[in-house]
Amino acid sequence: MKTIAIKLSQLKIPLLMAIAFCISINASAQLTEAQRYEESKKTEVWKPVPPKVEAMPNQPPSDAIILFDGNGIDSWEAIDGSDAPWDHSPYAMTVRAGSGDIVSKQSFCDVQMHIEWRTTREDDKTGQNKGNSGIFLQSRYEIQVLDTYQNSTYPNGQAASIYKQFIPLVDASRPAEEWQTYDIIYTAPRFTGSELTSPARLTLLHNGVLVHNNVELKGQTEWIGEPKYYAHECLPIKLQDHGSANSFRNIWIREI
Ligand code: MG
Q1: Rounded to the nearest whole angstrom, what is the distance from the C-alpha of residue 107 to the centroid of ligand 1?
Q2: What pTM was computed for the model?
Q3: How many helices (H) and strands (E) does the chain have?
């Protein structure tokens, strides 16, 4: 009897909930159409209204900051602040091997970024030396650019890897001399003083294919040793000169 009594008492609350649910359904069913319409309005949210953005096919969104569209290389500079030493034409800007990395003149924190890149053909090179460059968010966190089409290397250093931290989910690489795209959604790390309070997060589409889904970065990109965070503010985008005459075009960015 005791067992049955416990079971009945355990049933009491779910039973009451079920009865209340049935009553509520019944009440809702009894509302007139006008009353149902009034009820539906209670869950509508009218503010804030999102700002309008024009988004035409194969065009930067109307609120994007253009970092390169063929009209010069003025949005970029050398690390020492002198003029960007890379070659450029109305079609692309190209690494002048040995001239050094370039950085955007503007600093950024959280962003959506689009960039197109093309590795030069280097049949005489292999591994990490073949068409190497990179896109460094906040000048510190590298998304690898590399000719890894039929070119073996460590997967956490192949194209679309977050260098030495995350292997891409799939390999969407195209051959050298073909244009490829990265679409990046990046949340900058947060610091309180020198203390990390929230790590950087990154989502990446390579040629339209998801290869990183909101991964949590482990720290600043390192070639040797484990990544660590060092406190910083908003910083420029950096493009790497790794000795290969790779090209970039259609670079735009939206601050989030
Ligand atoms: Mg690189």
Answers
A1: 21
A2: 0.87
A3: 2, 15
